[in-house]
Amino acid sequence: MRLRRVRTAEGPRIEAEAGGHFVRLADLLRLGTIAEASEVTGDPASDMIAALQLGEKGWAALAAEIESHGRPAREDGHVTLPFQPASFRDFMLYEEHVINATRGYVKRFMPGAYRTASLVEKITGKPFRKFRPKPLWYRQPIYYFGNHMNFLTEGDEIAWPGYTKALDYELEIGAVLAQPLMDASPKEAEAAIGGFVVLNDVSARDVQGAEMGSGFGPQKAKHFVNAIGNIVVTADEVLPHLGTLSGTVAINGTEIAQCSAAGARYSFGECFAIAAKGEQLHPGEFIGSGTLPGGSGMENGHWLQPGDQLTLTLDHIGSLTNTIAAGAPA
Fold first, then answer.
1. CA 235 to chain centre
2. 324: CB partners within 8 A, 6+ apart
3. Residue 153 pLDDT greater than 90, yes or no
4. Which among 289, 205, 292, 203 is positioned nearest to 248, based on CA atoms?
5. DSSP letter for each residue of 254-284
6. CA 135 to chain centre
7. What is the pLDDT of residues 217-250, one digit of tens each?
8. Is residue 329 part of a domain?
9. Residue-range definition of the domain harbouring residue 22
10. Is residue 16 a part of any domain in this protein?
11. pLDDT given for residue 329 in this prediction
12. Are 283 and 49 in contact (CB under 8 A)?
């Protein structure tokens, strides 16, 4: 099921797509009964997280109700950020991305070291050792905390921070928790996922290296803004396809990269499980997959410029288009 959040004069409204149009959940007479049967405490008509708490049986009942009694939503609102994340952890699931992105970073910002590393790679036929993830990555999922308050959505303009000359995008899969979680198994954690969105983890690459070397992880390189699509697709429709999802990156209408979600070292269930180890997680907490291989300018060589229109897509989930503010440093 595809869901969106619409801001209206009466407050936020959740809508579900059906038959090529959207239906407002508040217009469904049986919504309260379906929510009660799913033990939802919030209001699915106005709260995206509550709508995601309906779960697979609730979504099926909702789809049947929409098919029987749904009518197209009134065009009296503005589609907006689908939910406000309660937190944001960004994981790093793809070894290929780490190797290629590190190589791309060194190529742009450390050309002398890049020539040496390239020679070593040519001689050995293997990735340069320092381009590979750190040893902990091979033992458990790792992540950093981002700024969960600075999320944009479809159509919003991304402001270019004055302190960077190397603004980059990262095509990722985002997942939002619908149920509380603590000390859960990966299977239990996966069952607590409510839905998925397209995620752009925006990055200031020229300040990232020094911050990562500080021992505290990314700071101003990451925390200024991120963006997610305005459509949330329920977990039941995405989880069976996660290992085969494909995506694309387009700049100013020209496709410049094709990506695949295949080859992740860890599952989303494993990611949420490690986050919930000895720690209470709450509905609305949000995680990213890390960049799909090839889904960043640092990998594919197509860096952002002021005024660019950027479109990221993921099969089974949707797309996300944002414009980069004009007149920024480049």
1. 14
2. 157, 158, 160, 167, 304, 305, 306, 307, 308, 309, 310
3. yes
4. 292
5. EEEEEEE-TT-SS-HHHHHHHHTTTS-B-TT
6. 25
7. 899 999 999 999 999 999 999 999 999 999 999 9
8. no
9. 2-80
10. yes
11. 63
12. yes
The CA radius of gyration of the chain, in Å to the nearest whole number, is 20
What are the structure tokens assigned to 124, written together? 């050995």
> Does residue 14 sit in the same domain as residue 120?
no
Say if CB 177 and CB 272 are below 8 A apart: yes
What CATH number does the domain containing 292 carry? 3.90.850.10
Number of Cβ within 10 Å of residue 177's Cβ equals 27
**Whether residue 32 has pLDDT greater than 60:** yes
Q: What is the DSSP letter of 215?
A: T
The 10 Å Cβ neighbour count of residue 209 is 16
Q: Are 200 and 215 in a shared domain?
A: yes
Domain boundary among 80, 107, 133: 80
Q: Residue 294 CA to chain centroid, in angstroms?
A: 16
- Identity at 286, one-letter amino acid code: F
